[in-house]
Specification:
Blueprint: H1 3-71, H2 73-80, E1 106-112, E2 117-123, H3 127-130, E3 134-136, E4 147-152, E5 174-179, E6 182-194, E7 209-217, E8 224-237
Parallel strand pairs: 2-3, 4-7
Antiparallel strand pairs: 1-2, 1-5, 3-4, 5-6, 6-8, 7-8
Length: 238
């Protein structure tokens, strides 16, 4: 019988301590969860910083290629000598790469019916790439995927060559990208002129499938960049 009071004391202490222990445990769990969230956000910020730096480097290379074209008469004249449209690229005659990621890899081709553009797309933004056709800016999304696919080309002085007529594109015009994976049709929704170092035009997103075309403007001075944005409206998979 003498143990009964002690039992009630122990039960009382337990009843008093339980809320405190539960609160402590919840605080501990919440602290762990917040630490995990902070770590995830920290990793995401680091990834975004790395991506932004990579895009900055790609833009520097692209601007260097544009500058080289306008500053080098021999390079410019060799491109101007090519008349008419570029030869048709037959993707079905080429071996499909495991992954497009190396400079010079064939991405596919770009067609803009409104201005009669029909160009091969190679991966890269170097002068060598842009001397052959259009170039997919490194680190941008593959065609057809969610994100932002950046494609650049010279604005030659010869009518109809490369992106010479890009300023004639209107809202609602089609941009067609044909790749090994399929054909993706985009509709132009925005046209603007920006400074050469405006990397924001290639900001990625997690919702839409966007293509961004980049070339120089004005044609004989190239102090700015002509930007054409399109959003995907149709696709067919191979």
């Amino acid at each position: 019988m003498k143990k009964i009071p002690y039992l009630f004391i122990i039960i009382g202490i337990g009843l008093i301590a339980y809320p405190l222990v539960s609160l402590f445990y919840r605080d501990y769990q919440e602290s762990r969860l917040m630490s995990d969230v902070d770590r995830l956000f920290s990793d995401a910020l680091v990834e975004e910083e790395v991506y932004t730096e990579a895009m900055g480097n790609s833009f520097q290379q692209l601007n260097s290629s544009f500058d080289s074209y306008y500053e080098n008469p021999e390079q410019r004249s060799s491109l101007e000598e090519l008349e008419g449209q570029e030869p048709e690229l037959r993707l079905d005659e080429l071996e499909k790469p495991a992954e497009v990621k190396n400079e010079g890899d064939i991405v596919g081709k770009i067609k803009i019916p409104a201005i009669e553009v029909n160009l091969p797309i190679l991966y890269g933004a170097s002068a060598r790439i842009l001397d052959q056709g259009a170039g997919q800016v490194p680190h941008t999304s593959p065609p057809g995927e969610i994100g932002n696919t950046g494609i650049a080309a010279h604005r030659t002085w010869t009518h109809g060559r490369l992106f010479n007529r890009l300023d004639e594109v209107n809202l609602g015009d089609e941009i067609i990208l044909e790749t090994y994976e399929g054909t993706f049709t985009y509709e132009v929704y925005d046209i603007k002129v920006v400074d050469p170092d405006d990397v924001t035009v290639l900001y990625r997103n997690s919702t839409h499938r966007v293509v961004t075309l980049i070339t120089c403007t004005p044609m004989y001075d190239a102090t700015h960049r002509l930007i054409v944005h399109g959003v995907m409206v149709d696709s067919s998979q191979n």
